[in-house]
């Protein structure tokens, strides 16, 4: 089922360090919530497909990046902590 989108006001990208993301995947595998090999395959596909889409929305000045550099565990569950919310991926030119 496809839903037609009328207008996009902005896109938010959670920017993880690769190391942090890999640790989260390993954590999920240890908890039995995900299959480690399938998650690694999905991560590779995600990185290959998301960068061009993010660059497109950045070009359109609709991309906002939340840098997720810290993960805090509360009751044994990971909680994302945004460090620098709502920053542009790259500074826009002032033309």
Question: Which short descriptors sum up this protein?
Answer:
95 residues; 3-stranded mixed beta sheet; globular
Structure description:
With 95 residues, the chain is an alpha+beta fold. The chain has one domain. 39% of the residues lie in helices and 31% in strands. The chain is built from 2 helices and 3 strands. It has helices spanning 18-30, 36-59; strands spanning 11-16, 63-74, 77-87. The longest helix is centred in the middle third of the chain and has 24 residues, at 36-59. The radius of gyration is 16 Å and the shape is globular. It starts with 10 loop residues before the first strand and ends in an 8-residue tail after the last strand. The relative contact order is 0.18.
Summarize the structure.
The chain is α+β, with helices and mostly antiparallel strands. The protein is 39% helix and 31% strand.
Q: Which structural class do the helices and strands define?
A: alpha+beta
N→C terminal distance = 41 Å
The total count of strands amounts to 3
- H/E element sequence: EHHEE
Biggest β-sheet: count, sense, barrel?
A: 3 strands, mixed
Rounded radius of gyration (Å): 16 Å
**Helical content band:** 25-40%
Mean pLDDT: 76
Strand order across the largest sheet: 1-2-3
User: In the residues, how many domains can be counted?
Assistant: 1
Total helical elements: 2
Regions with pLDDT < 50 over 5+ consecutive residues? Answer: 83-95
| Molecular shape | globular
Tell me the β content: 25-35%
């Amino acid at each position: 089922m496809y839903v037609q989108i009328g207008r996009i006001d902005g896109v938010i990208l959670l920017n993880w360090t690769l190391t942090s993301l890999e640790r989260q995947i390993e954590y999920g595998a240890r908890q039995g919530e995900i299959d480690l090999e399938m998650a690694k395959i999905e991560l590779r596909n995600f990185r290959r497909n998301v960068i061009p889409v993010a660059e497109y929305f950045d070009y359109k000045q609709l991309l906002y990046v939340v840098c997720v550099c810290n993960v805090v565990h509360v009751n044994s569950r990971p909680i994302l902590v945004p460090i620098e919310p709502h920053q542009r991926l790259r500074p826009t030119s002032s033309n």
